[in-house]
Structures are given as structure tokens and as C-alpha cells.
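Example record

The entry below shows one chain as it appears in the dataset: sequence first, then C-alpha cells.
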Amino acid sequence: MQPIRKIIHIDMDAFYASVEQRDRPELKGKPVIVGGDPQSRGVVAACSYEARQFGIHSAMASSTAYRLCPDAVFIRPRFDMYRAVSAQIREIFCEYTDLVEPLSLDEAFLDVTENYMGMKSATLIAREIKQKVYDRTGKLTASAGVSFNKFIAKVASDMNKPDGITVIPPDMADEFMDRLPIRKFFGVGKVTEEKMINLGIKTGADLKKYKKEQLIQLFGKSGSYFFNIAHGNDDRPVEPNRIRKSIGKETTLLEDIDDTNQMLEILDDIAVRLENSLINREAKGRTITLKVKYFDFQSITRSVTIDEPADRASVIMKYLKPLLSKTEAGEKKVRLLGISISNFDDQETNSGKVCKYRQLPLPFKFPNAKGAGNDFKLW
């Protein structure tokens, strides 16, 4: 019989903005927005918790963020610094296990079922990791979710932010999933959430009332996923060599349009959002794909493969105008536009081994343990 897995999801708190506040102490306590110029078509890459109080969030247009909080401090991203801090954090992960799956610069899954420290408690491992991150990065904080599968661990890490730990052992899973609002389920976007609420599905408990066949009929292939997750079933392993096939962004338009100049402006905004995701994931790709969905819901794609891998919006946009001209956009009205990047270099996609080497474990003592959170259980 396989042992019950112990998985930790570590998520840095307001990572980019926290790094900026660390390096510029005068910014502490102020609303900080890392992203593009609010006077242009920039977007918010990250923001401090002080800025979030004004309703600002990542992927929001910088101009909208400025309207919500004119006194916010806008800072251009320093990705070289964020990568350096991320490398420090990953070294800490590798002191405990080789099974580390980075999702981006600021979050990762760890399987600590078996670990170098020989510790039985995943909770205590998460607590140690949080403290080491705090000590070694200049007081940056992280939140942790601890559970027996990836889905619950990831949801749990968001429950007691910032600087918290939430632990969901197997005997608490049913109650946790039953009470979980449907908007907290990964894969449930605004459209799906609205459809579920119209069906009376507001929580995991409501979702459990439906049979798998019913959910497949209502939501297609996603129905099987929703059924399994609602019942706490997630067998996905932590994959240190996970390979990303593509990264993309798209926008569904409020109204169908036939003005190609307007389409290019929208694509420029999507390209900036995509650039943020690519840099955050340390990814560069050689194949650029344009997605167009017409007013009649017909979808088409046009792609080009380039010599040098790209991660910048300015480079991506050079190829989008010719790709758009190869569609019927303008002749036919368009309801959705999207861009994706694929054909990654191995080095750029975290497909190589995350833990290049293992440091010898050292005895660890808590000076002043940070962030027990509201749900701290030894498991």
C-alpha cells in the first residue's frame, strides 16, 4: 500500500512588490504596484497588500490601477532581481527534497513524503522553510498549504495569507472541500462560475450532489475534473521535470469588432500580459500563435516559428500583424483574440532538474517562528 503523500505548496506573499519594499524601505506600508506605466497600455504584474485594499490586482490595466489609487507608487519590474531571490528560495526547497515542481518564480509544490531531514511532519517542514525564507531573503514572507494532494495544498496556501500555514490532513478533506466556495476551484473561471451558480452550485458540497456523467454533460471534459476534485481526488504527482507545452493569454471582447487597428491595440495589451507570464516562468519560445474567434464562434489559428526564442511583447508584436492579415479578421467580425508561445528551449521551461545538487542538512532552530496562521496542525 502506497503511503499517503505529504505535499506542500509554498507561495511567496506579493512577491515582486515585497522585494521592492525590502530594497527600498521608504516604500514599506505604501501601496506599491509593479508593472507598466499607467499612462500607457501597461498592466499590473504584482502589487503590495496595501494596494490590494483599493481593489487592485495582477493583470489589471495600470491605468485602471491608477484611477483606483492615484497615490500608489508604480515601479518597473526588475526580473533579474526576482530570479535571484527565487533561486535562493529554491535552494531552501532542495535541502528537503528533490521533488520540487516550480510553477513560477514565486511558488512551487514539494513532495516531502520522504525527505532528507527524515522529518515525519510536513507541517514542521513547511514551518522551517518559511522561517529560512524569511531569514535568508531579508524578511520576505511566504504562505504554505500542506495536504495529501496538489489541489488541496494549493488552495490551502491561499487561506491564511500573508505569512500563514494551513494544514488539511485526509480526515479534514471532506469538510474542507464541502465548504470551499466554487470560485476557489482552479479551472472555474467567471463564465463557469456563473453557470454553476445558476445551477445552484455555490460550494464543493453542492458540486458533490452531481454525478460524474451529469457534470460531463454540463461542462464537457472538465466535468470529470470537477467531479474528482470535489471528492478530494487528485493523483497528480509533483513533477520536478515538468515540461510546459505552451503559455498563452486571450481576451473575449465585450462587442464583436471588425476594425483591425483596434484588434492590434488589443493584441498589444495581450502581448504585454503574456510577456509578464513568460518572464515570471523563465520561459522563451520560438513558435508564436495567434488565435482568432469570429462572431459565428468559428476559431482559427495562425503560427510562425522564429529563429531566436522570444519573451518580449515588442518582439511578439512584430509577427502578429502579418499573422492577423492571414485571417478573415476585418472581413468578419471578431469576438476573441489570443496569443500563445510554444516550442520552448528546455533550459527556459524549468524542464531540467530543479535541484542540481543537495546541500547537507543542518540542524535548525527557530529564532522567532513566523506565521503559524489560523490553522496550524502537526501532520
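Notes for this example: The first strand starts at residue 7 and ends at 12. The first helix runs from residue 15 to 23.
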